[in-house]
Design a protein that fits this description.
Layout lengths: L1 H10 L3 H14 L6 H11 L9 H11 L10 H15 L8 H13 L9 E6 L18 E5 L11 H4 L5 E6 L4 E8 L11 H4 L4 H6 L1 E17 H6 L5 H10 L17 E4 L1 H9 L2 H9 L20 E5 L10 H6 L1 E5 L2 H6 L8 E6 L3 E8 L25 E11 L6 E2 H8 L10 E2 L4 H18 L10 H11 L1 E6 L5 H16 L9 E5 L6 H4 L1 E7 L5 E7 L1 H14 L10 E6 L6 H5 L20 E2 L6 E2 L5 E8 L10 H4 L3 E4 L5 H6 L1 H5 L3 H7 L3 H22 L20 H19 L4 H8 L8 E2 L4 E2 L4 H12 L13
Parallel strand pairs: 1-3, 7-9, 14-21, 14-22, 15-18, 18-21
Antiparallel strand pairs: 1-6, 2-5, 3-4, 4-5, 7-13, 8-11, 9-10, 10-11, 10-12, 16-17, 19-20, 23-24
Helix pairs in contact: 1-2, 4-6, 17-19, 26-27, 27-30
C-alpha cells in the first residue's frame, strides 16, 4: 500500500487522484504514521496542494480560524483544503502559491514574532546586605544585575525564575528592610552562567553552591522612584486596595507576599501577575510612567490574568531505548529522563514542555514510574552543557537529560504490565516505544498514570514488622500533626516512617508535587537552632574581614515550601502534604533546636487555624507560622534514652507509637520458614544450613530478649529488633550479622564488661560467643554460632541436626 501511494504521488498531478491515494493509505491505519510524518513527503512532491502539518502550523491556523487542526492522517486531505482556502483568500499568490510560505507565516504567528510582546514584570526581594549591592557600586549593584546561586542550600532548584526572565522584562526592586519598592530596571542580557563572581558574593554561598556557579542577568535603565511604593500604607493596609490584594493572593501562587500580607520566606525573584502590576501602578505614578516607557501598558489587561488552562500532555519515555544496559532507575535517582547516542535521540527530549507528564516505559516489562517535567531541555549533550551534570553511563558516552520530578516509581514486581498498557491505550502492537512518544489516546495515558499512583500506594501499603496499620498511623498523625516512633534498635522505625510518608503523599494527593514532599534530617548532640531554623554563618572576605551570612535551616525550608503549596491550593481542596522525618530525635537538645516554634507545632495554632500563632524568629525577626499540611515524624531509639527523659513541653505535642521487636515477621517473610510446622522443626529437619541457622537466630534473639527484659540495667527498651535478620540470603550473611551488628550492640549495652554480659545473657550455653579472658567477642564460625543459638533457645542436642554445610 505504501508503494502504491508513493507511485500515485510521483506520477499523478490530479488532485482527486492523489487525495484518494492518501485517504486509502490512511484507512489502513499503519501504526505510528500520522499527518506529521507523511505531510512533508506530500508537500515535497506537491508543494501547492499539500501543506506540512506540524505543531507550529496547527497552532497557528487554530489561532487564525479559532478551530483546532487535526493531526490524524485520516483527516489530512480535509485539513489540507483548509490551508489552501487560507492561502487562496489571503495569500499574495492566490491559487498557485507554495504552501510553505503559509507554514512559515503560521510559525511566526505562534512564536509572537508578528506582534509586539508585553514584558513580564518581576519583583526582586532583596536588601543592601553587602557593599557590592550598594546602588552605583559596580556591575553587580542594585539595578545593575540580579544574581543567585544555581541551587539553594538544600540542593533545590529555588532560583529557576532567573532562567525564565527574558530580555526586555521589567524588574521591580523591593527592599525588605524598608518594606518598599524603591525603583525598577529592565533585563538586558540572556542568562549568564559562567560569570566569575567576586569572593564577596561567593562567600555567601556554601561550597556546593560555589562549585555549581551562579546565575546572572544584567540590567539597564535603573530608575529610583521619587516616592517609593511603601507596601503597608500603599498596598496591604490601603482601604481601597486591601481587598484586591487578598483576592490576588488567593488566585495566584508564587507571589512575594502571603495570606497574612507579610513577605514570603524565600522567593528572591517572583513574577508579578497582571492584576498585581496594575494595583502597584495604581499606588505609584512613578511606576506607571516607568512601565509605559518600557512597553507595558497597564490598562491593556483590565485586571485579568493570562493563565494557560490547557491540560498537560502525557508522554511515554523509553528508559532503555537504544541502550539496553540502563533500566531507568539511575535516571530516577538523578531526577531526569535520559537518552543516549546520536543527536536525534537528544532532540526527542525537547518535545515535552514544563508541566507535561512522563510515564517511564521499560521494554519487555511495562511502566515503572510517573513524573512531571520540571523544565524543558534544548537537547544538548550533557558533556557540552555549562553545568556540571553527573552522567548515568560511564565512559563519556553521548548523553542527554530532561529534568523530571519522578513522583512515583515502581519495582519490577509492581510494574504496570504490557497487557494492561495495551488494554488501556487500545494499542495491540505496543512493545517498541521511541525515546519520547506521545500516545494518541491521552485519556488512556492519564488513566495509566493513575494506575501507577495506585500501584505505588499498594506497594507501600504496609511495612513488614510494624504492628501499626497505616490507617492507625494516619489517624494519629492527622489528629496531632506530630508523631514519634520509639523502640529498640532494629525495629524498622525510620523505614516505616519513610514508607508511610510516601504512601500518605500518594494516597491523599493525586497531583503530588514530588519527592521533595518527604525530607529527612538527623538530630545529634551538636545539631542546633541554626541548623533547624535559621542562623548566621561566619566567613572571611578578601581583606580579612569577617562576614556573617544568613542561612535558612532544614525546618524553615520545608515550612516555606509547604506554605507555598498550601497558599497555592484553592479553597475547599486539601493542600499537598509535606513530611519532615526527624531521625534520632532524642539525640538532640530539643528545646534548643525548636526554640520559639514549639508552640506553633500544635494543630490548632497553625496557619489559618482557630488559635493561629505567629512567632518571631530569633535571628532575622521574621514572622513564622507553620501550615497545616506539614507533618513531623520523629524516630527514637530507646536503647539511648527513654521517653520520660524527653522535654515535657515537646513531649505533649507529639503522640508516641511503640515499635517492639516483631520476630514473627522474619518467619513470615521467608517462604521456607513460613511453610514449616515450626522453627524447631526446621532445626531438627536439617537439609539446608541457611534455613537452619536463620531459624536458630530467630529463636536465639527471642531468648536473648526475654533475658534482656529481666536485666535491671537493660529492660525492654534495649531488646534486639527483628530487622537484623531481614535480607540474609546465605549462611555467611547471617554470621556477619551476628559478628558485626548484634554482638557489638550487646557489648555496647554492657560498656565492654564482658563478664557481666556472659553472666546475664550467655551463662547457660555450652558454646559461648565471648572470650571473657581476652574481654572480646570471638571470631566464631557458623557451626559455633548455630550451637550457641540452639543452647540459648533451649533446644536439646538430640533435637538439633548439625548444619549440613558451613
Amino acid at each position: 500500500m505504501a508503494y502504491t501511494l508513493l507511485e500515485q504521488l510521483v506520477e499523478s498531478s490530479d488532485p482527486d487522484v492523489i487525495d484518494a491515494a492518501v485517504d486509502e493509505f490512511a484507512a489502513v491505519g499503519v501504526s505510528g504514521i500520522q499527518a506529521g510524518g507523511l505531510s512533508p513527503i506530500c508537500f515535497f512532491l506537491h508543494p501547492t496542494h499539500y501543506p506540512v502539518i506540524n505543531g507550529g502550523s496547527r497552532d497557528g491556523l487554530e489561532k487564525v480560524t479559532g478551530e483546532a487542526v487535526s493531526s490524524q492522517l485520516s483527516e489530512y486531505t480535509e485539513e489540507a483544503e483548509r490551508y489552501r482556502e487560507i492561502r487562496d483568500t489571503y495569500g499574495p499568490d492566490r491559487g498557485d502559491g507554495n504552501l510553505r510560505d503559509l507554514d512559515w507565516f503560521l510559525h511566526l504567528l505562534v512564536r509572537g514574532d508578528l506582534e509586539p510582546s508585553t514584558p513580564t514584570v518581576w519583583v526582586e526581594k532583596t536588601d543592601i546586605h553587602a557593599p557590592y549591592k550598594e546602588p552605583g557600586n559596580g556591575e553587580l549593584a542594585l539595578g545593575q544585575a540580579v544574581i543567585s546561586p544555581q541551587r539553594d542550600g538544600g540542593g533545590r532548584d529555588s532560583y529557576w525564575q532567573l532562567r525564565e526572565a527574558d530580555q526586555g522584562d521589567i524588574v521591580l526592586h523591593l527592599i525588605q528592610e524598608d518594606y518598599a519598592i524603591i525603583g525598577a530596571s529592565v533585563v538586558d542580557s540572556e542568562l549568564i552562567t559562567d560569570y566569575d563572581f567576586p569572593e564577596s558574593v561567593e562567600s555567601r554561598w556554601d561550597e556546593q553552591q560555589q562549585a555549581q556557579g551562579g546565575y546572572l542577568r544584567k540590567l539597564r535603565s535603573f530608575t529610583r522612584f521619587d516616592e517609593p511604593v511603601e507596601l503597608k500604607p500603599d498596598l496591604f493596609d490601603h482601604p481601597d486596595r486591601q481587598e484586591e490584594v487578598d483576592r490576588i493572593r488567593e488566585e495566584y501562587s508564587g507571589i512575594f507576599y502571603n495570606k497574612n500580607r507579610g513577605l514570603v520566606q524565600g522567593g528572591y525573584l517572583t513574577e508579578a501577575p497582571d492584576p498585581l502590576v496594575e494595583i502597584l501602578a495604581d499606588a505609584s505614578d512613578d511606576l506607571t510612567e516607568y512601565l509605559s516607557e518600557h512597553g507595558y501598558t497597564v490598562s491593556a489587561y483590565g485586571g485579568t490574568g493570562t493563565d494557560d488552562d490547557s491540560p498537560p500532555t502525557h508522554y511515554l519515555w523509553n528508559t532503555n531505548y537504544e541502550n539496553d544496559k540502563t533500566d531507568g532507575r539511575a535516571a530516577f535517582r538523578r531526577g531526569v529522563a535520559a537518552a543516549y547516542g546520536p543527536e536525534r535521540y537528544g532532540a526527542k527530549l525537547t518535545t515535552p514542555n514544563a508541566g507535561d507528564l512522563l510515564l517511564a516505559y521499560r521494554e519487555g516489562l511495562g511502566i515503572i514510574g510517573a513524573g512531571t517535567v520540571i523544565e524543558e531541555t534544548d537537547g544538548t549533550d550533557i558533556h557540552d552543557s555549562e553545568s556540571d551534570v553527573e552522567p548515568i553511563k560511564d565512559g563519556g558516552a553521548t548523553e542527554y537529560h530532561l529534568p523530571v520530578d519522578w513522583e512515583y516509581t515502581l519495582s519490577d514486581e509492581h510494574a504496570i504490565s504490557l497487557d494492561t498498557i495495551r488494554e488501556v491505550l487500545g494499542n495491540e502492537k505496543i512493545g517498541h516505544v521511541k525515546t519520547v512518544q506521545e500516545p494518541s489516546n491521552q485519556e488512556g495515558a492519564a488513566e495509566l498514570r493513575e494506575l501507577v499512583r495506585r500501584q505505588y500506594i499498594d506497594s507501600y501499603a504496609a511495612t513488614p514488622g510494624s504492628k501499626h496499620s497505616y490507617e492507625a498511623i494516619r489517624r494519629q498523625l492527622e489528629a496531632k500533626k506530630q508523631l514519634v516512633f520509639h523502640g529498640p534498635p532494629g525495629t524498622g522505625k525510620t523505614y516505616t516512617a519513610r514508607r508511610f510518608a510516601n504512601w500518605y503523599r500518594a494516597t491523599v494527593d493525586e497531583t503530588a508535587v514530588g519527592a521533595e514532599q518527604v525530607r529527612t534530617v538527623t538530630f545529634h548532640p551538636s545539631f542546633a537552632y541554626e541548623d533547624f531554623l535559621e542562623g548566621f554563618t561566619a566567613s572571611v572576605e578578601g581583606e580579612g574581614q569577617v562576614a556573617y551570612d544568613y542561612k535558612k535551616g532544614a525546618f524553615a525550608s520545608i515550612v516555606a515550601d509547604a506554605t507555598a503549596a498550601y497558599e497555592a491550593t484553592p479553597k475547599g481542596e486539601d493542600a499537598p502534604p509535606f513530611f519532615l522525618i526527624i531521625d534520632e530525635i532524642n539525640r538532640g537538645n530539643l528545646a534548643q533546636i525548636f526554640g520559639e516554634t514549639i508552640t506553633l507545632l500544635e494543630a490548632d495554632k497553625r496557619m489559618d487555624q482557630p488559635n493561629e500563632v505567629t512567632a518571631q524568629l530569633a535571628h532575622s525577626g521574621e514572622p513564622f507560622t507553620i501550615p497545616p499540611n506539614l507533618y513531623l515524624i520523629g524516630t527514637m531509639n530507646t536503647a539511648d534514652e527513654s521517653i520520660a527523659l524527653i522535654d515535657t513541653a515537646l513531649r505533649r505535642r507529639f503522640r508516641f507509637l511503640a515499635f517492639p521487636p516483631q520476630l514473627e515477621t522474619v518467619t513470615e517473610s521467608d517462604p521456607v520458614l513460613r511453610d514449616a510446622a515450626s522453627l524447631e522443626a526446621v532445626i531438627d529437619g536439617g537439609g539446608d544450613a541457611r534455613n537452619q541457622l536463620l531459624a536458630a537466630s530467630i529463636l536465639g534473639v527471642e531468648a536473648l530478649n526475654a533475658e534482656i527484659i529481666d536485666v535491671r540495667q537493660l529492660g525492654k527498651g534495649k531488646q534486639l529488633g527483628h530487622t537484623y535478620l531481614f535480607d540474609c540470603p546465605d549462611v555467611q550473611a547471617i554470621v556477619d550479622t551476628w559478628q558485626y551488628e548484634i554482638m557489638p550492640q550487646l557489648e555496647e549495652y554492657y560498656f565492654g564488661q564482658f563478664d557481666a554480659l556472659q553472666r546475664d545473657l550467655f551463662d547457660d550455653v555450652d558454646q559461648s560467643l565471648l572470650d571473657t579472658d581476652q574481654q572480646t567477642v570471638t571470631a566464631f564460625s557458623a557451626t559455633e554460632l548455630y550451637e550457641c543459638l540452639c543452647d540459648l533457645a533451649g533446644i536439646p542436642n538430640d533435637e538439633r541436626v548439625p548444619l549440613t554445610s558451613t
